[in-house]
Amino acid sequence: MYAVIKTGGKQYRVASGEKLKIEQIPAEVGAEITLDQVLVVGQGDAIRIGTPLVADAVVKATVLAHGRHDKIRIFKMRRRKHSQKHQGHRQNYTEIRVEAIVDGAAAPVSD
Question: 54 vs 13, 21, 41, CA distance in Å?
Answer without folding.
Answer: 14, 23, 8
